[in-house]
Amino acid sequence: MDDELRERVERAAEKHALLNAVKYDSDADVGAVMGPLMGENPEFRPHGDEIPGVVGGVVGRVNDLPPEEKRARLEELAPEELAAIEAEDEGDDRTLPDLPNADDYEEVRMRAAPNPNGPWHIGHARMPAVIGTYKEIYDGSFVVRFDDTDPETKRPDLDAYDAILEDIDYLGFEPDEVIRASDRVETYYDHAREVIEMGGAYTCSCSGEAFSELKNDGEPCPHRDKDAETTREEFEAMVDGEYASGEMVLRVKTDIEHKNPALRDWVAFRMIDTPHPREEASDYRCWPMLDFQSGVDDHLTGVTHIIRGIDLQDSAKRQRFLYDYFGWEYPEVVHWGHVQVDAYDVKMSTSTIKAKIDAGELDGWDDPRAPTIKSLRRRGIRGSAIVDAMLELGTSTSDVDLSMTAIYSNNRDIVDDEAARYFLVREGERFAVEGGPEAGHPAIHPDHEDRGDRTVPAADGVVVEPDDVPAEGERVWLKGFGCVRREGDSLVHTDDSIEAVRSGDVDVIHWAPAEDNVSVRMRTMEGDVTGVAEPDFADADADEVVQFERLGFVRVDGQNGDESVVYWAHK
């Protein structure tokens, strides 16, 4: 990378780092900067291996600026973008658009329809966040319907049903009704029989390849004109399990010459030999396809508004054929794009995460490296922090990027006031301490003097992080203890006042006792980190969120005699 290109990268990175920092009122994040930087500047891509290093340096410099200087610098570089951020800050707190035709319904009733093939990844949080909020806005109802009628391809995980409901509760919502589609198979059979009697469905034994060729050519299946009695008999044979998987399907008649081949005579029921994992549904072999099952359930449960991915537009169009047969009114539909989340090396996919757990690459669904709701919860992220970040995405039909910085910023606002402060030193270097008090007494919380001080022993020596070790003869300020000068393997207490810090001559560092300390294992997104904390940390309760000063917030997972375990949350 030549000097000219480096300067261009630095200028662009500075703008995006400032945008990220100002928008979320927090430190900029390299991952959140890289996406828009490379998107706006495709000419940078051939230098992709070098650019993260340049961006990292720029982000570090931006994060060192006070908030008012960040805003002033952004006004110089990108005044229009700053104005847009300020307009958002001053705008209506209600981030979601009005639901279409909501006033036409006595009650707004919406549903989340998860496939319980595993616990939820972060992207799944968007649906309950938005639906739960709409329920509150319109004083409506929120239905959770488990779409579990595929016991083979998307095989349900028996633990996932409760896990998903726990995730919804953690996000702060309570469904008004919970339904399992696998409990309702007889209902789907009854509605299939009605469509057959109307002449709106037929049984088909064509192979998938043969029907696909006919469909794409706009030619009818040879079974399409069979009489309703024959179709009914063959469908009952399907229900009785007399056909093997792939041998017979039931199709809904649409328009075989429809301009969209995907809508031509779609499959409503198919045979599956694999038993359902739920004992209550294990005897069924004839299963509805999602478009049939979901379409029937949306009507019978009174759903008025559906939110679904923009990629599922054909589902609504297929279901409208079914609704026309029954004379039902189709619900209002809002389509949105997918959520993409930065900061993770693991793909946000239930099957991918499950495969990595099975292979031992992840410890479980709550591994800090996994992009899952369970992982965020174990790291000490509050559910409302996730919900607020999801609501800021709105309901755009475009794919949207969710920066973890937004979630972290929201969470910081929630936990900061309550989080006690402690010192944690990683890979510490040991020094004797000469002179000064027996212990340091930093505040439990800098904004709450009434909460008192901690006691951090110093008489038997201290450990400091390698990056904080002063050069020979240089001074540092051990927070809560005082100013010391390095003399060989010792830190000698000086008489300097706090003015040495205020004048910028002396850096403030954290530290821990060399002897009387607590061994800590910190689980992070990059792997485990070990270190020692001050003795008062042993009093922190499990599930408490605390701040390791200068490092960040963590959730205490457990305390024991040999090692305390914490999960990294964020800076």
UniProtKB/TrEMBL annotation:
Reactions this protein catalyses: tRNA(Glu) + L-glutamate + ATP = L-glutamyl-tRNA(Glu) + AMP + diphosphate
Placement of sequence motif 'HIGH' region: 114-124
GO cellular component: cytosol
Limits of the tRNA synthetases class I (E and Q) anti-codon binding domain: 508-557
Pfam family, one: tRNA-synt_1c
BP terms from Gene Ontology: amide biosynthetic process; glutamyl-tRNA aminoacylation
Major site of localization recorded for this protein: cytoplasm
GO MF term list: ATP binding; glutamate-tRNA ligase activity
Compartments, as annotated in UniProt: Cytoplasm
Entry's EC annotation: 6.1.1.17
Domain Glutamyl/glutaminyl-tRNA synthetase class Ib anti-codon binding, first and last residues per copy: 419-490
Superkingdom to which the source organism belongs: Archaea
Keyword list, A-Z: Aminoacyl-tRNA synthetase, ATP-binding, Cytoplasm, Ligase, Nucleotide-binding, Protein biosynthesis
Residue intervals of the Glutamyl/glutaminyl-tRNA synthetase class Ib catalytic domain: 107-412
InterPro entries (alphabetical): Gln/Glu-tRNA_Ligase, Glu-tRNA-synth_arc/euk, Glu/Gln-tRNA-synth, Glu/Gln-tRNA-synth_Ib_cat-dom, Glu/Gln-tRNA-synth_Ib_codon-bd, Rbsml_bL25/Gln-tRNA_synth_N, Ribosomal_bL25/Gln-tRNA_synth, Rossmann-like_a/b/a_fold
Family: Belongs to the class-I aminoacyl-tRNA synthetase family. Glutamate--tRNA ligase type 2 subfamily.
Function: Catalyzes the attachment of glutamate to tRNA(Glu) in a two-step reaction: glutamate is first activated by ATP to form Glu-AMP and then transferred to the acceptor end of tRNA(Glu).
HAMAP family: Glu_tRNA_synth_type2
The protein, known as: Glutamate--tRNA ligase
Species annotation: Halogeometricum pallidum JCM 14848
Gene: gltX
